[in-house]
Design a protein that fits this description.
Elements: H1 3-18, H2 22-27, E1 29-36, E2 42-44, H3 46-59, E3 60-71, E4 77-88, E5 101-114, E6 117-125, H4 127-135
Length: 136
């Protein structure tokens, strides 16, 4: 996969996310996708990622803006930096109570690409910053 193809794949991944098009979003993943959850555990497989996204879409409404996508020359790795504009809709277990709080959070992600699909995604944002924004 070329660098340009990888850039387009990651851009399509985030366009599907922003558009709420979960079918397209999930179809851009390998069946054995690795998902490194921010400051948390690693999950493997499209089924686990689908379940994770179902919970996310229940508790949060998010749009990603100010997107910058980078890719290695060989197209095997990519990274994205962006700002999350969100609304906390339903309390997520172990986190502060939700009541529609809005937040703005810088974030990033790292990708591994295989067979023209996302084979690994590692997300990062500052959880303490998010907690401070929704707590007060």
């Amino acid at each position: 996969m070329s660098q340009q193809d990888t850039l387009k794949l990651v851009e399509n991944y985030y366009a599907a996310f922003n558009g709420g098009d979960m079918d397209t979003f999930l179809n851009l993943l390998t069946d054995d996708v690795i998902h490194d959850i921010n400051q948390g555990r690693r999950e493997v497989g499209k089924a686990a990622f689908t379940q994770f996204m179902s919970g996310m879409n229940t508790s949060y409404k998010e749009q990603l803006v100010d997107m910058v996508v980078m890719a290695s020359v060989d197209g095997q790795r990519a990274a994205a930096e962006f700002v999350v504009l969100g609304e906390y809709l339903k309390t997520d277990e172990g986190l502060p109570e939700a009541n529609g709080q809005k937040y703005k959070l810088p974030a990033g992600a790292f990708f591994e690409i295989r067979d023209n699909k996302v084979a690994r995604i590692t997300n990062y944002y500052n959880l303490e910053d998010w907690i401070a924004q929704v707590s007060g």
